[in-house]
Amino acid sequence: MKCVKPLLLASAIASSMFVQADELNKVLLSSDKINQSASASQQKIDGIADTMQTRLQQYKTLNKEIDGLAIYNNQLSKQVNNQLTELDNLAKSMDDVAIIERQITPLMLRMIAGLEQFVALDVPFLADERSQRVATLKSMMDRADIASSEKFRRVLEAYQVEVDYGRTIEAYTSLLEVAGKEREVDFLRVGRLDLIYLTRDGKQAGIWNKETKQFQDLPDSNISQINKALRIARKQLAPDMLTLPVQAAE
DSSP string spanning the chain? Predict the structure, then answer.
């Protein structure tokens, strides 16, 4: 009987320790659950924070795009307004072009008629070529497939060719009636001052007389200089001083 109390005490202590251990396990288990729940909550918080940060960046990016689009739209509006102004100006210009086109056709016809008269009254060099140029211009004016601008360009081009004749020297071969016979001769044109011919045998020369509208004979003393001038005009000799007959200006 003396050993009962210690055994009971030991049993009670063991039982108490078992209960405490069980409660401790429960506390630890609850702590783990709390930690797991806290970790899950923290992950959710981190995820929400990341999502908010991403959306904030997207918001800032969208704001920049909106600002850029506003500037772009403003610039486009200015361009559209300028284009509308240009369209108005073009419409007015088209009206003006129609008026100018109605006026320029009679002008070109007068220019061609003037050119034809000028060629007929001028020194008769390259007569066939120049007459054909005028005839081509007159035929061109009747064509509907050529724009007025192109017609005007060609008329001005013909005038420019005539202007260039006055400041160049040229040699060419053609037929001419000499002493009642048609002969092949070399022509020398010095601007519009002189039109001189020399027969191919080099024995006879003549010069165009602007008053009589005929060729008149030149003395044999001029033939050597005429030959030299012909070679210079054909670029067979270097430019040099020449002594040629020149009709005095009125």
Answer: -TTHHHHHHHHHHHHHHHHHHHHHHHHHHHHHHHHHHHHHHHHHHHHHHHHHHHHHHHHHHHHHHHHHHHHHHHHHHHHHHHHHHHHHHHHHHHHHHHHHHHHHHHHHHHHHHHHHHHHHHS--TTHHHHHHHHHHHHHHTT-SSS-HHHHHHHHHHHHHHHHHHTT-EEEEEEEEEETTEEEEEEEEEETTTEEEEEETTSS-EEEEETTTTEEEE--GGGHHHHHHHHHHHTTSS---------PPP-
The pLDDT tens digits of the residues spanning 5-50 come to 555 555 556 566 655 666 766 766 777 777 777 777 778 787 787 7
Answer whether residue 80 shows pLDDT above 90. Answer: no
Question: Reading across the β-sheet that carries 181-190, which strands appear in turn?
Answer: 169-178, 181-190, 194-199, 205-209, 214-217
Per-residue tokens: 7? 């055994």
Q: pTM higher than 0.70 for the full model?
A: no
Q: Per residue in 186-240, pLDDT tens?
A: 999 999 889 999 999 999 999 999 889 999 999 999 999 999 999 999 999 998 8
Distances (CA, A) of 242 to 5, 195, 228: 162, 15, 8
Nearest to 193 by CA among 159, 212, 211, 167: 167
Angle CA(161)–CA(185)–CA(202) in degrees, nearest 5?
Answer: 130
